[in-house]
Amino acid sequence: MLSTFSKNVLRLAGGTAFAQLLPLLVAPALSRLYSPAEFGAYYFFSALVAMGSVVSTGRYEMAVMLPEKERPALATFMAGVLLSGLAMLFLFLLLCFPAFRQMLNERTHLGLWMWLLPPAIWLQGVFNLLSYWHNRHRRFRLIAASKFVLSGVNAFGRLGLGFWRGGIGGLILGTFLAWLAVVLQFARKLLKADFSLLRNMRLAEAIEQARKYKHFPRNMVIGSLFNKGSSELPALLLNWFFLPGIAGWYGQMAAVTRRPIQVIGRSFEEVFRQAAAEEIHKTGHCRRIFWRTFKKLFAIGFVPFALFAWLAPPLFAFVFGPEWEQAGHYARAFALPFFLQFISAPLSSLFYLYEQVNLYSKLEFLQLLLVLAALLGGKYFFGHAGLTIYLLAGAYTLGYLLRLYLLALMQK
Fold first, then answer.
1. Of 36, 39, 50, 26, nearest to 171 (Cα)?
2. Minimal CB count within 10 Å: which of 87, 164, 288, 293?
């Protein structure tokens, strides 16, 4: 018989696997409904939302788990919602300035869809807050179901809108409706299960909790931005520096390739983290399990990534259509860093197990600097989009090699 813990893990794993698999299944159809330039503008929009949502809540969602009693926990949740709402109003004010809108639209061609940026950032921020609130109450079935809703509405919404009218609006609106659907799903459960707490909540309580956990926005937002920035900056700056089509090829390549890496990597990470923690408690190190896992990941990934580097251009052209062959050339350039990511990501939990969080933050910052240097160098020193992609691949390769080197040093 499975334990309650194991059942909860399986529920969440199933939802995560479906959420990662469905976009891969509909990607060939979407790539024929939308152009690389439209995908480029969409990935720019998505990158802004991902980075904005980290800032908008002040990371108070992570503090929701801390209070022992329910009332201060809900007040902490409300503090994050209010802060996210203020961030949305601030962004709306910025968009009211014609000069700001023109600057944003010159490179991205978002048009009127840029007005969805503030509510999209707010929705994703509120989704993060609600996720932690329901996690606190062990509503794992609801969280797993939310992944189905988010992935399904996003995939089929973009498909339907693509057949109906297409354009950048189809991609953005489909994703926006997906976030709206899952937030409404979460909010309905909140109102149903926790209405008695909500009814008596006071603004002063939310402000008090915001002050109590003020170190979260002060200390954790910057670190989270480093992490998000290293993965989201290419979609932002490739679009800004070159053409939306370049960012579209890159974004599609990264999205399609990283999903299988994340699904397999998370499975390894869960098992490795538990075994490594036990070995560290017993012996003070985890050399045996570290090198055994490293060898397994290397053996599993070497042949597929080598074949991927060889076949990527014709494979992308066949699956996504002829105009996406260039994305396959980008994938060939990124085969090595993705292989290194496949190996290093599951092992990176050692930074926490060995209490090397500061070192991990420095690594994230260095990775961000390498990515930024590659993008700026490709634009201002070489002025060539293709060379910028290779510089980016080199930046990620250096970052992952350094990560693996430091992880190996911990085993001595």
1. 39
2. 164
